[in-house]
Write a structure and sequence with these properties.
The chain is mainly α. The protein has a domain at 24-71. The protein has 2 helices and no strands. The chain has helices spanning 2-17, 26-67. The longest helix has 42 residues, at 26-67. The protein is elongated and about 90 Å long.
Length: 106
Amino acid sequence: MRKLLLALITTSFAGVALAKLPPPSDEAKAKAAEAAAKAAHGGKVASYQLCRSMEKVAARYMAEAAMAGKTVNKPTETPACADPGPFVPAGATPAAAAPAPAAKKS
């Protein structure tokens, strides 16, 4: 009796587990796209910060080696670090510098 009951419960849950979810709404798709864009921008920011720190370390090493009188090979040329700037959502345009509001005379 227990095995039959267990089999019935298992098959009923299997039907629920195999049910399809409804497609996401446009709003949910937009939120997911924005989250993906933020994550990608975060990766670009992290790469930029890593690039800057590597430049600082290399410059300090070269300066300390020069002070110690060591001869160091010329460092390999690398591309300049590219600052990704602040995150701007896909649908928005970056706000231009707004003029200061005029002071009201009393």
